[in-house]
Structures are given as C-alpha cells and as structure tokens.
Amino acid sequence: MKVTLLSKSDSKIKIMIEDVDVGFVNALRRILISEVPVYAVDHIIVYENTSPLYDEILAHRLGLIPLDTPVNVTKEVTLGIEKEGPCVVYSKDIVSEDEIIKPIIPDIPIIKLGDNQKIKIHCIATVGVAKAHAKYQSCLAFYKYFPIIKIDKKCDLCGICVESCPKNILKIKNDSIDMVNIEECTLCKSCEEQCDLRAITVMHDPRKFIFTIESYGNMSIKDLIEVSTEIIEEKCDNFIKLLAGVAEHGQRCKV
Questions:
Q1: Which of 72, 113, 122 is nearest to 90 (CA)?
Q2: CA 149, CA 244: separation in Å to the nearest integer?
Q3: Structure pTM?
Q4: How far apart are CA 199 and CA 192, in angstroms?
Q5: Among 50, 114, 57, 51, residue whose Cα is nearest residue 85
Q6: Do 25 and 49 sit in the same domain of this protein?
Q7: Band of the pLDDT at 234, cuts 50, 70, 90?
Q8: What confidence tens digit (pLDDT) does each residue in 198-216 have?
Q9: Span 236-254, mean pLDDT?
Q10: If DSSP states are collapsed to H, E and C, what string results for the chain?
Q11: How far apart are CA 78 and CA 173, in angstroms?
C-alpha cells in the first residue's frame, strides 16, 4: 500500500491510497464515521427552564455540540450551563469540570432567551460511537476512484469536451488536450458523452483512490487516522483468532 498526501489543513486532509482494493478503503471510511469513540452530552438534568424550548429540544441541541476528545479517555465528564436573558446562549457558555473536554466551537447558538427567561442545566458527557448514535460522529470520510482520461489521436481539438467539463480539468495547449488537477475529476463523463468523434474515454483505476477526511473537531486528523487504523488491526486480529478456533475445533464461533 502506498499513501500520498494531496492536501492538508487543520480540519481536512486529502490523500491518495494506492495498491489496495475498494473493500479496504470502504472499511476505513465506515470505521472513521461510525466507530471512532468521542465525547458527547448523553443526558441532562434540568433544574430550571423558562425558555421557549422544551427540555427535550435543549437536550437534543446540547447533544449535537462537538466536544474535544483526548485519545483513550473514557471517564464521564460533567458540564453545566446557567444563563438568564435577554441574551443568546452559545456553546462557549457551557462550563466543563475538565478543562480539556469542552465544546470545540465556541459560537454555536443554543437558544435565545428573552426577558426574565432562564436555563440552569447539568450535563453528563460520555464516550460513544456513531453507530450507536449520530451525536458521537467524529468526522466525515469519503473516497472516489482515481480518474483516468485517455485522448485518442482522432481528436480534432474542437473544444467541446473542454467546455463541457464542470471541473475545468481539460485545457487545449500546444495542439493537444492537457489535464489540470486530474484528481478533481468526478468521473461524470460529460466530456466523453459530448464528443461526437468518441475520441475521449474516462475510466478509473480500481486500485487507486482519493480519500478525504473532514474532522468535526472532536479529534485531530492525526488522532482520527491512528485510532481508526488501530480499530482495523484489532478487528483483523479478532477475525484471525476466530478462524483459528474454527479450524482447530471444527465448530462455529460467534463473530
């Protein structure tokens, strides 16, 4: 397997993965979006709520606020929020007992309080995974096949394919068609469909992928990759042990 960095920011990374099949990259995608453990508000205790929103709606909104999550920490964390209007209550108004585990985005609006309206809420955050509840999702992960665009010699440089490309990947240069930022190709095949001469062919490499991870901020990109690969390794080790048990005892094992 070969991995090449294409672009990177604090919350997003794009890499190229080669010499693997689609099963591997899809397994990595599924683990990233559904099995990486992160913190989220799990339940609340409402001491006072004279706001326009029901307790259940406030619980839902608080549960969806992403919390900073250190690796390999699973303890429960308590947080509190107490505000009186008139004001807008933001995620930065949530006070955590742990200075590390707190809302990572300070300006998420929770509720607008009017005159003499007040909320006083005690929150308990736990570690969970997104396959149990969406509030525990840590990132968005997706991939696509690496595109291959072939130009036949019968191309007359009419420029129709260039005009039809929604990503502006094709350019006419020095009596030929060049490709710019080919990784941006979405494999829509608009250029291929518009060419009357059938001089352009759009394909994909079945063992080469462009993989993108966008963190919601709960964990860094580095931690997300490390934790997800550890989960894959653990799953593979468990599967191998189960297969060994079947081979040795000749009986079914529960997976």
A1: 113
A2: 45
A3: 0.84
A4: 8
A5: 114
A6: no
A7: very high
A8: 889 999 999 999 999 999 9
A9: 75
A10: CEEEEEEECCCEEEEEEECCCHHHHHHHHHHHHHCCCEEEEEEEEEEEECCCCCHHHHHHHHHCCCECCCCCCCCCEEEEEEEECCEEEEHHHCEECCCCCCECCCCCEEEEECCCCEEEEEEEEEEECCCCCHHHCCEEEEEEEEEEEEECCCCCCCCHHHHHCCCCCEEEECCEEEECCHHHCCCCCHHHHHCCCCCEEEEEEEEEEEEEEEECCCCCHHHHHHHHHHHHHHHHHHHHHHHHHHHHHCCCCCC
A11: 62
Asked if residue 129 and residue 42 are part of one domain, the reply reads yes
Is 220:209 a contact under the CB 8 Å cutoff? Answer: no
Give the domain extent around 30. 2-35+140-213
C-alpha to C-alpha distance for 255 and 252, rounded to whole angstroms: 9
- Say which CATH number the domain at 60 has: 2.170.120.12
Q: What is the dihedral of CA 56, 57, 59, 63, to 10 degrees?
A: 140
**Which distant-in-sequence residues (6+ apart) come within 8 Å of 242 by Cβ?**
253, 255
Please choose, from the candidates 185, 177, 178, 133, the residue with its C-alpha nearest in 3D space to the C-alpha of residue 157: 177
CA distance 155 to 149: 13
Give the pLDDT score at 44: 94
Query: Which one, of 14, 24, 4, 11, lies nearest residue 207 by Cα?
Result: 24
Q: What CATH code is carried by the domain that includes residue 148?
A: 3.30.1360.10
Nearest to 12 by CA among 249, 225, 231, 251: 225
Question: What sign has the CA pseudo-torsion 250, 252, 254, 255?
Answer: positive
For 78, other C-beta atoms within 10 Å of its C-beta total: 14
Tokens at residue 6, please?
């294409």
